[in-house]
Amino acid sequence: MTLVAVLISNSERPAITDAVLAEARRVLATEHQPRTLHGEVAAEILVPGAPASAPALTERLRAALGPEPIDLAVLPADAHRRKRLFLADMDSTMIEQECIDELADEVGLKAHVAAITERAMRGEIAFEPALRERVALLKDLPVGTIDGLIAERITLTPGGRTLVRTLKAHGAHTCLVSGGFTLFTGAVADKIGFDENHANRLTLAGDRLAGTVEEPIVGKEAKRATLIDLRTRLGLDPAETLAVGDGANDLAMIGEAGLGVAFRAKPAVAEAARVRIDHGDLTALLYLQGYGAAEFVD
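That's the Phosphoserine phosphatase sequence above. Prediction below.
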């Protein structure tokens, strides 16, 4: 069987030079020539080998290239490389903020809530009780505050729109699935172009937040279940699915996907995921599937 080694850097700091590719070929012991995906930003090299050897080859490349700002993955070069179902986390993945922390800033509790968020995303505390605790602190906050936050503070992660639009243009179904709130995911999904979105629902008392969230909470297992449900509904092979996230509540979804990616993730998540992206933007997920920049839909 043939594998493919993908090397990705950030477009603001291109690092896939001829010297890097020559070293990669040496380490991988392959006679195949590199295929350029985007200038010195991304390239791939075919490698003879079985899927079981991919993790070891990836680590061998990481060791050889050392401190270079390059993301590496060795993957099967098979018929399912381009995925037909994509699920993405929202906070700190498709957007650059944690929405609940921004809400907490409106009541002067951002540092306190952000500390809880960080522990939950690292997997140090259970997600569901941590969410209930943080939401309780938002009681009586005017719901209209959320529109202002979306307009003024929420920024999309670079490459996200291109990622989703390119996948959709090639027939993939896309879903934003978040442990955050529908009051944010609806707007974010529309901005980026997702086909659908799933998240928690904040309860309201008139025009203010009631300080509670509807049960059951969308957490780790709910994200995984959403992937399975969509995969079944669309009649897809597990290998045809892609998922990305950064926190502990994304691990089950990442593990269930045919290609699971930890994106600028917490240490435990990056360690557990089969593929991690630390340097590239979200278009890295396109390069992993063999898309060249010329195929991107902006």
